[in-house]
Design brief:
Arc Repressor Mutant, subunit A; 2 domains; two-stranded antiparallel ribbon; 6 helices; 61% helix
Length: 127
């Protein structure tokens, strides 16, 4: 079975840019990061190489340029990271996670209603 690569926080920043393009050069990635991160071009290129080594991205060579593209979808990475978070922080218990958020002041009544609707729909699909 294919395993989704573990992506660091810095790599997520780069991946979000790559996900928004079918193909993109390192120069364009660096330009888009200029206002978001105070990284030197060498740092960005290191992050790109790490993502290549993890098989999160691939490339096509066009003349002297490399055009990078995602090999894993954003949705796949979000699902994998969410599962990892729930396993790590809540011992795999979605119930514990939801209870923690529901009991905090950070979740609004609108959010609670939306969660009820999502759970209700999920039950209908499984039933």
């Amino acid at each position: 079975m294919y395993e989704i690569p573990k992506i660091s926080n810095s790599e997520w920043v780069v991946m979000k840019i790559i996900w928004n393009h079918s193909e993109i050069t390192s120069i364009n990635i660096i330009q888009q990061l200029k206002d978001k991160a105070q990284w030197k071009p060498a740092t960005v290129k290191s992050l790109i190489n790490r993502l290549l080594n993890k098989n999160a991205i691939g490339f096509n060579k066009l003349g002297y340029e490399y055009l990078y593209f995602a090999l894993v979808s954003e949705d796949e990475c979000i699902k994998s990271e969410s599962k990892s978070f729930i396993d790590r922080v809540f011992n795999g218990s979605i119930k514990s996670m939801i209870l923690t958020f529901a009991e905090s002041k950070e979740i609004s009544e609108t959010d609670i209603e939306e969660l009820k609707n999502i759970l209700s729909q999920s039950i209908k699909r499984k039933g």
